[in-house]
Design a protein that fits this description.
GO terms for molecular function: hydrolase activity. The structure is a single chain. With 147 residues, the protein is of the alpha+beta class. It has a single domain, classed as HIT-like (HIT family, subunit A, 2-Layer Sandwich). The chain contains three helices and seven strands. The strands form two sheets. Strands 1-2-3-5-4 form a five-stranded antiparallel beta sheet. A two-stranded antiparallel ribbon has the order 6-7. A hairpin with a 4-residue loop joins strand 6 and strand 7. The protein is globular. It starts with 7 loop residues before the first helix and ends with a strand.
C-alpha cells in the first residue's frame, strides 16, 4: 500500500530489516535486547481488530514465526510478543527474545533503563543474521521453506 508510513517515533527508534507479506520488520536500536517490531502496512490502523480476519491471522503468523526463529538462533529463554500502543497509536507488534539475567529480567523491557544503541558493525551483523533467519521462513503458509 503506497500511503503506508511507519510512525516517525518507530522509525527513529529502529532500523528496517525487511518487508514481510503484511508487515514491515524493524530492529529496535537497543543492543541490550533482541527486540523486533512488526508494523502492518495498513494506513490508519491502530488496533488488531481493525485488520480483517485474514490479516489478523497473517499478523500472528509473522509474529510467531519470526519470534520462534529468533529465539532459536539467539538462544533465548522466553519470547515476548505484545501490542501496546500507548506511546505510538499505529498498530505495531513487539517481538522480544528474553534471557534470564538480561538487563530487565524478569520485568518488561519497556521503559527499563537507557537504551544502548548498536555500534555499526554489530548492527550490520545482527540485521544480516535476522534477514537470513526470516528468509528461511515461508510466512505465507507458516511452514519453513524446504529450499
Amino acid at each position: 500500500m503506497s500511503d503506508f508510513e511507519p510512525d516517525a517515533r518507530l522509525v527513529e527508534d529502529s532500523y528496517p530489516v525487511t518487508e514481510l507479506p503484511l508487515c514491515q520488520l524493524r530492529l529496535m536500536n537497543d543492543a541490550r535486547f533482541p527486540w523486533l517490531l512488526l508494523i502492518p502496512r495498513r494506513p490508519g490502523v491502530s488496533e488488531v481488530f481493525e485488520l480483517d480476519e485474514t490479516e489478523q491471522q497473517q499478523l500472528w503468523r509473522e509474529a510467531s514465526r519470526v519470534g520462534q526463529a529468533c529465539k532459536a538462533f539467539l538462544g533465548g529463554d522466553k519470547l515476548n510478543i505484545a501490542c501496546l500502543g500507548n506511546m505510538v497509536a499505529q498498530l505495531h507488534v513487539h517481538v522480544v527474545v528474553r534471557r534470564r539475567g538480561d538487563a530487565a529480567w524478569p520485568g518488561p523491557v519497556w521503559g527499563h533503563g537507557t537504551p544502548e544503541a548498536y555500534d555499526l558493525d554489530t548492527l550490520a551483523d545482527r540485521r544480516a543474521r535476522l534477514l537470513a533467519q526470516v528468509e528461511a521462513l515461508d510466512l505465507r503458509s507458516g511452514e519453513k521453506s524446504q529450499a
